[in-house]
Design brief:
The protein has about 170 residues and is α+β, with helices and mostly antiparallel strands. The protein is about 30% helix and about 20% strand. The two termini are about 35 Å apart.
Length: about 170
């Protein structure tokens, strides 16, 4: 799997592994396929600092009165002088290797979840996967779209109820 990312979104993959948790139930191996391109990454921060941009206390990149939360973005030519670039970070993931190192399986169930910072700022990779799986297990008639909508509703609830006002 090849993943290219710019911005503050993330992709994760969950590979279902039968009967590996302590309760004898199914579990999943959950891994990030991408990393948000923000000033939290040292090389990204250094590139911004060497350009004409400035970084505020929240990690946002500014060029004059214009700000952005990430260090890479598509189509944001104004921020290029601040060091924000459109070049994606590309990662590779060997699905076959990950499946076979967990056992001698020739196939497995897996899912990829792609979400913005609106989801992943309040839900960890495992939590987002578990929540989506639990939603999908509650009803055989529940569609993937409905499950994703419920995931978004949970993230919104956490944003509204659990984050300090200044962050919201």
């Amino acid at each position: 799997i090849y993943a290219g990312n710019v911005g503050d979104s993330r992709a994760i993959i969950a590979i279902d592994i039968a009967n590996v948790d302590e309760d004898g139930g199914d579990a999943a191996l959950v891994m990030a396929l991408s990393t948000e391109t923000t000033t939290a990454i040292e090389d990204e921060r250094k590139r911004i600092q060497s350009g004409e941009g400035r970084i505020d206390g929240s990690g946002n990149v500014w060029y004059g009165p214009v700000g952005i939360a990430s260090t890479r973005a598509l189509g944001d030519s104004v921020m290029s002088r601040a060091g924000v670039i459109p070049t994606p970070q590309v990662t590779t993931f060997d699905l076959i290797q990950e499946v076979t190192k967990e056992g001698n399986r020739s196939s497995c169930d897996c899912r990829v979840l792609i979400g913005s910072d609106g989801i992943f700022d309040v839900l960890g990779n495992e939590e987002a996967n578990e929540l989506l799986c639990n939603i999908m297990k509650t009803s055989d008639r529940l569609s993937l779209e409905a499950g994703c909508n419920m995931l978004v509703q949970e993230a919104r609830r956490k944003w509204q109820n659990e984050l300090p006002v200044e962050v919201r």
